[in-house]
Design brief:
Length: 299
């Protein structure tokens, strides 16, 4: 049995007239009658009661008509779904970002995309830059939003999302001896216990920061590493040590913590949207178009 047999049968069942059905199907009547006979022989049931004056569905024909409607409806739905996926109108996108991205207008780009393409589901994750790049290489992520001091690896397509430079801030327990200072220098932190992110999380930023400490003659005394900003702030609030952040960090409120500007000139990471060069998922390119439009509009 072929799908065309179902379509032939449904058309005859609707018209209850072979001549009219053949006309709808743009074919002559004898081949249509032959196809219906072949279908009945294959099924082993009589679908139509035929007389010289009328054509009527049998009880088996009525049941088969209802099931054929369901099959054809599901087939049409599957065809539309496949075409929408191919056109990038439906599907799923796996999007990663560093935490700083969610402190910018990036969430507004996500909202604009959801409004433009409501049938594309977004799986959002907050990951470090190095993890996102690895996930992109391994096909576990479709789009990333990373923070780098220079420019993302040339193995990926990239677009600058936010090139603003951020000032450095020292995060201190509110009762710390340096907490009431208007600003600090690296030398002020000499010998102080430090909480920081692991190098594997942001190798480039880690090296820039720690090399700057050493250039100032200070060897950081790291007592704890953590990947999560919220955990880092909680540890600072507990009095375990200080941390160094860029100026977006104070947007994450935390009791028991103060932020003091670090009066040192260091390049801060800029935010880039990255995706694979050989990306074939049209939904990825539609997402990039939406983000690019917002960036170019200065939104």
């Amino acid at each position: 049995m072929e799908l065309r047999h179902l379509r032939y049968f449904v058309t005859v069942a609707e018209e209850l007239h072979f001549g009219r059905a053949a006309k709808r199907l743009n074919m002559s009547q004898p081949p249509l009658s032959q196809q219906i006979r072949q279908l009945e022989d294959e099924l082993g049931v009589t679908l139509f009661e035929r007389t010289s004056r009328s054509v009527e569905l049998t009880r088996a024909g009525e049941a088969f008509r209802d099931d054929a409607y369901r099959v054809l409806s599901e087939l049409d739905k599957a065809v539309r779904h496949a075409r929408d996926i191919e056109a990038g109108e439906e599907g799923r996108l796996r999007i990663g970002a560093v935490s700083r991205a969610y402190m910018t207008d990036y969430p507004l780009a996500l909202k604009a995309f959801r409004e433009a393409y409501p049938r594309i589901a977004l799986d959002l994750g907050e990951y470090s830059t190095s993890r996102q790049l690895r996930m992109l290489r391994e096909g576990e992520l479709d789009v990333g939003c990373v923070g780098v001091v220079d420019k993302p690896c040339s193995a990926f397509e990239s677009m600058l999302l936010d090139g603003r430079q951020e000032a450095l801030m020292v995060t201190l327990p509110d009762g710390h001896r340096l907490a009431r200072r208007d600003s600090l220098f690296f030398k002020d932190l000499d010998g102080e216990a430090m909480i920081t992110f692991p190098r594997c999380q942001h190798p480039e930023c880690y090296d820039v920061l720690f090399n700057a400490f050493r250039d100032a003659g200070v060897e950081p005394r790291v007592v704890q590493e953590t990947e999560q900003l919220e955990t880092e702030l909680a540890l600072v609030a507990s009095g375990l040590g200080f941390a160094v952040h860029f100026s977006s960090a104070p947007l994450v409120a935390r009791r028991g913590v103060v932020f003091v500007p670090l009066d040192e000139n260091l390049p801060s990471p800029t935010l880039w949207v990255v995706w694979r060069k050989d990306e074939k998922n049209p939904a990825v390119h539609k997402f990039i178009e939406v983000v690019r439009a917002r960036v170019e509009a200065g939104e």
